[in-house]
Amino acid sequence: MIDPSVAIGAELPAQHFSWTARDVQTYHLALGAGSRPTDGDELHYLDDAGPQVLPTFATVAATFHATDAPRVQFPGIDIDLAKVVHGTQEITALGAIPPAGEACSITRITEVWDKGKAAVIVQETTTTTLDGIALWRARSSIFARGEGGFGGERGPSPSVAVPNREADVVLDVPTLPQQALMYRMCGDRNPLHSDPEFALAAGFPAPILHGLCTYGMVCKAVTDGVLGGDAGAVEHFGAKFAGVVYPGETLTCRIWDDDGRYLAHVTVRDRGDAPALTDVVTTTR
Question: Which positions are tagged coiled coil (predicted)?
Fold first, then answer.
């Protein structure tokens, strides 16, 4: 059920939360950090006292210690979790994210689009320290199958074109068979990523990898591949979720240096370069 007149502009309850260096380490391990266990740059993600923090940690920070499956219940919105997949995600870090801290996030529903057979719900979040210093901003959308047709506006369909030439950097990013089970330790307990029967009922032959896990793994690949492993250099990272990834598959990440920003297109090598992430944009500070 979606009632745009109630949903659009609604502010969700504030989330107060804290995180530790151990949480950051766990998140990075869930993205595959440590695969080169004697590499100093790699170990920078896993330092016990002060690990560098990928900006994509912002996607899990507020719910890191959740143990229940999420619910898609907001003002004017009540949707079966099995119908929902991630649509887009953007994070803008307003400085290097500290390895430990306390913060408060405020989220508003800004748009609800009617795509006919589906609905798209857009949220924007601002996160600040407890004394009001802005840490990051996020914008995300979810795609709810079977929830369209309520007579709303269709909304835009923006896209980011990559340069018409060979990629400047091509990286293979392997995922592990247990990758989704590792990533759910970061607070996303959606059974779509762990329960074979739930996944089958949702229309997938097996549990799929969290879209935000793919998102974080690609941010790390871009950071390591073109930014010298400096997570603090990433100011903005955004992407569109274009297809599913199954744990154990290998991603191919093609990266273009586009006049000061980095564009990427990510495919699944194991399935004939099926798209995984498109419209991947990284900007640096």
Answer: none
